[in-house]
Amino acid sequence: MKDANMTETLTFTDPRLAELDGFHVQLNVSNERADIILARPPYNVISMGARDQLRLVFEALDADDRVRIIVISGEGEHFSSGGNIKGFLEASPEHVSHLAWNIAAPSRCTKPVIAANRGYTFGVGFELSLACDFRIVSETCRYALPEQKLGQIPGSGGSARLQKIVGVTRTKDIVMRSKRIPGQQALDWGIATECVPDGDLEQAVTDLVTELREFSPMAQRTAKKLLNDTDDALLSTAIEMEGLNYSRLRQSEDFREGVEAFHAKRKPAFTGR
Ligand SMILES: CC(C)(COP(=O)([O-])OP(=O)(O)OC[C@H]1O[C@@H](n2cnc3c(N)ncnc32)[C@H](O)[C@@H]1OP(=O)(O)O)[C@@H](O)C(=O)NCCC(=O)NCCSC(=O)/C=C/C[N+](C)(C)C
User: Fold this and answer.
1) Is the pTM higher than 0.90?
2) In this entry, which stretches build a coiled coil (predicted)?
3) Ligand 1 pocket: which of 81, 94, 97, 99 to mutate (most atoms <8 Å of CB)?
């Protein structure tokens, strides 16, 4: 990557990528926004190697100061029909042991991550989206964890994350019946952040990127980490951690800038410090 405003496809130089089975993840970076595209149409099936690629891409983007917001989408009509079923029997124990860690990469990333979901968003495609901070879906989106049809269960955090969002009854309905959830229902159940007509998906994502870029990167990072860390915590612990993080954030330049801009009736100019 050269400068923040250019669009280019990342060339992976990490030697660990040399052994991967195919190159199916594209990356474009422009204007502080990074687009990760699952590029294996029509169904953007995610190979074991693509999972490794995804993790490495998220780690690289997280470390790059020129990137503020990350968007993940699928090429064409579908986000992804999930993991490559045809390769499951050949998967190495090493790959299997990394499944959940790789797919949790958006959640570990300190920057805001948006999933843009349309069409089939199945299996590991859904799990990957659940690890993101925002899910903007189109009306064509169909979420599913269809592993039971394969004599399997989700293995990359899908049922666990879903249960947190929709509770055990709905999760059992989705997992144990391999049920498909349409975009509008995903919104109604709190799985999706927003549901829009298919032709409006890109604009809805761009609008959210524009909105998020207005905020202090430091305050965003703190909010994301705090909410992730306290997801499992007792209420009393979560409240205490919120207070500690607030106190720490008070020391930042962005905190002062936010308050001074409010007084001056001007737009804040956050620097991330
Ligand atoms: C509804 C689907 C996606 C499309 O149906 P269709 O009738 O339009 O097309 P068709 O079934 O003929 O598919 C065309 C070709 O694409 C291949 N395909 C599609 N999805 C996959 C996939 N996920 N893996 C491998 N190959 C796939 C399909 O086999 C056809 O190939 P050929 O032309 O026959 O060579 C329908 O295809 C469907 O329901 N697919 C399965 C979706 C699914 O079960 N996804 C979950 C996979 S499991 C997973 O993601 C995570 C597992 C976690 N862990 C590993 C821990 C167990």
Assistant:
1) yes
2) none
3) 81
